[in-house]
Each structure stands twice: as structure tokens, then as C-alpha cells.
UniProtKB/TrEMBL annotation:
Biased composition (Low complexity): 104-139, 197-214
Organism of this sequence: Dunaliella tertiolecta (Green alga)
Name assigned to this protein: PIH1 N-terminal domain-containing protein
Biased composition (Polar residues): 155-165
Domain of life: Eukaryota
Amino acid sequence: MSTLREDVDKKGEACTTLDCCLNNDVIAMAAKHRPLKSFLIELAINWVSHKHKMELDMKFKLPKMRYKGEVVETQRIRVDKKPLVSEVKDVPEEPTFALRATKAAPPETQPQTSTSSPQHQHAPHMSSRSGQPSSSSSSGTNVRGSEQAGPASMRGTTAQPATGSSHTMFKLLGGVECHGRPVESISFSVELPPCLQQAPPQHLPQEQQQQQHESGSGWTLQGAQAVAGAVRVEVCGRDVFLGYPGCQELRVPLPFAASTQNASVTLETPSPINAAGAASGKPAIVRVQLRYASLSDLLAQAAAQKPHQYGQLGLANTTALELED
């Protein structure tokens, strides 16, 4: 349909005309089939009424002229082609996460203060979950085992202990810290469970328990050495596990894979009596520092372990037959 234009009829009165474009094949079929011709005329009248908001009488009369006007005007069905892909701008997007009605409270962090009193440092036992022996050691720390290659997905740096009483649980102080750019080592500090600081451990000899009880603060040199030997630190890829007999195991996820080579693990206990002659009452802390393990190190270790080496399991073994079934 074209736009409306003013004209005059055969009586000289003002009239309105417009052009209607149809396909040549449709016009040829309408010339042979009269119902199709009537349908096209009614369709054109209804479309003009809808487009220009006017009421037209369906009683029409076809003139004998082929075109109303001196020169046939050229009509364009579509001026501009519509693009296949159009850019949508300024569209309000609804958030995909739940909005909080109130501002979230910042997480509470325990401040770490340095003490002037002397501290006893001891190296707890440290190993890995793979159980393979290694002869590397550093800073008086006995490190055994080589870490297993951890998963490739990133994990957070929040410790995830097992559910249980807080009296027997380790506590991560702060978070995991990375040293160097690029990262060369990873370190974190863990507070021992309160059950190890308020009473002598039950697995110690009777003499050491008596000395630890009489000291007033719960810590003696012999007791600290015994606790340091019983604290277990294991490295498995991107996870570090800390354990003690009778206590809940603590898992500390790391942002990177760590290695037990040149690792440093120390147990810092406060002095039994401070300068004022009273017990200090400060907690004992385990400080762990691990070397960053690159992807090439993990791949080399996996190749050295060869867990799926060909020919390791015989075909006649019953285990292989069960797997095939």
C-alpha cells in the first residue's frame, strides 16, 4: 500500500487515491478465477481501513481505467533491508542472585599481636597423603612423602573442619597468604584445639602430665615436644590436613597446589611464666609454610608415580575379570 494522495474523480470532485501492489502471478490467477479477484479487493479495502483508520463501504465498483493518474508512481515494498542480527541496547537486566535486604556484616578477623616473651618452637610431623618417602627437609622439619596431583578446579581459602565440638577443633587464623610475585610460597597459621591448651594430653606419660599440670600454664618443654610430635600435617595437592589424636581433622584448601619440598612447619607455644610471674594464657599456634607447586611439577610427579602403568595388573587376575563383568 502506498501513501494517500489527493485527486479528483470524473465529476471533478475531490477524492483520495492510493496504489496497491500485488504479485503478477496472483493478478493472472485472479483474472481467471473470479472469487480470488473478489477476495483480493476485499482484502485491499480492509487493509486500507486498518492502516489509515477510516471506514470504507464494502460495496465497490471497478472503474474501466487501468491507473488513476497520469504517470505510474514507482513503489518500494521495503525501503531498507532488515538486518539478520540487531543489537539490543539499554535493556534492564534482572539480577540472577538474591538481593539482601540489609547490608552484610563484615567477617570478624582475629587480630594477631606479637608478644615480647620468648617462645618455644617445635616442628610437628608433616607428611602427604600419598605415603611415598622423600628425603628433603628444611628448618628442622621432617618432611615425608610427595604430594599427589590435586584437581584442576580452583578452591577457596576457607578452612573446612569436620562438624563436632569446638573444644576439639583446630582454628584457622586469618587466611592463606601468598608470598612473592609470581607466587613462590604459601603460608597460614592454625590455633591448636583448646583441649590441648587447657589440660595435659592424655596420651603423654604420667610424669610429663604431672610436670605440665604443675607449670600453671599447661606447657612445658617436654609437653610441647610431645605435642609437636603428635600433630599431623598432610599435603594432598591443593589441600592441607591438620590432625591430632582425639581432635577433629581440619582441611585448609589452598588457591594453588603446594609441595612438601623445603616446607616449614613450626609449633609456637607461649612461655610458661611471663615477666609478671603469671601465666601468659596465649594459645599455641602451628605455622605452616609450603612451596608453590607448578603444573609441570604435578605432571612430572604423576608420570613418576605411574598409577595406570600398562602391564601392572595381570589379565589373569580376578580383579581384572570383575572389572570386565
